[in-house]
Amino acid sequence: MSHSTHRLALLEKVGYSLGDAAANLVWRGALAFLAVFYTDTYGLETMAVAALLLVVRLSDGVTDIIMGMVADRTETRWGKFRPWVLFSAPLLGIFMALTFTTPDLSPTGKLVYAYVTYICLTLAYTMNNVPYSALMGVMTPSNTERTNLSSWRFAGAFFGGFLVMVGTPVLVQLFGQGNEQLGYQYTMYLFSLLLVILLIATFKSTTERVSVSQNVSSKTQTNWLKFCSNMLLASVPLISATLFFYYRNLITGILFTVVIVVTALVIRKLLNKSEDDMTDAEQDIVDLLTNKPWLVLLGIGFLFMMFNGIKIGAAAYYFKHYVSDSISIGQMIAWWPTSIINIEGKEAFLSFYFAALLSISVVAALMTGWLVKLIGKKRLFISILLFGGLLTSLIFYIGPEDLGMLFGLGIASEFFAAIMPVLFFAMLGDAADYSEWKNKRRATGLVFSAGTFINKTGGGFAGALIVIVLGVYGYVGTDESTIELALPALKSLMSWIPGIFAVIAALLMILYPLNDRKMLSVESDLIDRRKSAS
Prior knowledge:
This protein is mainly alpha-helical. It has 19 helices and no strands. The two termini are 17 Å apart.
């Protein structure tokens, strides 16, 4: 049996990591600040924002899959995926700036502008991040080295997140001088320029090495595909009723029902086709939806993004409205002299909190490779989900002046949360290998499109859930009289609500079929098969 001994150079790992640093200037900025920006700065209604975040994220499911298939079929002298990283960079920067620009429009005009710019931002992100994620799957044939590369990737991601999440509150105050709308606009101009520079560096420093074949596959099993279509149909009444209850909008429920039913029927139609009658794109879809590891990862990715998205997205509201403003950070940390660190204002608390979380995130990401060797991917994933969920849930019992305890629990839970995306994207590479091993064809871009789809969809659902819960408690961002009533919601959103999603994800992870021994066997077979083919 053969095993890959390929190792990536340090410069290439760092260069690849800069791409996710750039992506997280968008992603962490949108995830952490977009909901509160829309409700408190731009003045949109909470339920309108919830619908906006949910609708746009749901649409990403189609665009991510299309982008994955397009990237798989791209042929240039630079490779399949690297050109997309380069040419999408200016679009991503432009729409990031426009999303946080606040033209003086009517309430309806503001909502339309928010939809248009946010949709364009997510499309540009799809064009960039689906190929970027897939690039990791073809830079090295070694599943072990992919885990190390994923660690570097998310160290870069957390660095980018550090810049935007720590810098945004400070820069908004600096540039805006009391005008939050202007402050957000100039801040995002600066980050947009930086992300373009970082993406160019990623393009220049990386290389594609694993060839992606499109051979005709063997007959695939359809049990998992039938299960997916049945679950889609079964979910229609529940989800439609939920949408109608929260939005009081029958049209929203009807449109959602139509989309789900059509999707399930298309899947069933594919099942009835013989393999000879399928196009390459249709066969790619069938291969993907009959890939059990990928399906399990799809569910886990959504759940841990709900976990991360809720606790990060709720933090801006939590610090703004729940945390006491009568103490300084110097008072919070006894061993730091107040005379040296005497920062007042809730924006400073939030910025310092994000700095602490993202600093430990970089450490956790770089330790993931070592922890995988010690424990294994599957057992490590289950452990971090349970510990992260438990520590996050304990935040419910923290008072508005207990910032020391808040920071302690937040940092501890973030250590485990930061490992989740590292493992997830490394395991997507394993799912791509498994698909090639099983079906004798490979669609790396399509497999990795799940990563960006789940990131955006999970983040969108998390943001929607945050504003829905706040809306149920009567929260109106521009009305101070509603804040007191919404405080129980803020405590729950920072604690046990995200914790529940982490526990459910841990239970689902038990079903994941690829352990380390199985992946070594798959990797060995693929190496021998590629040698024979060449």
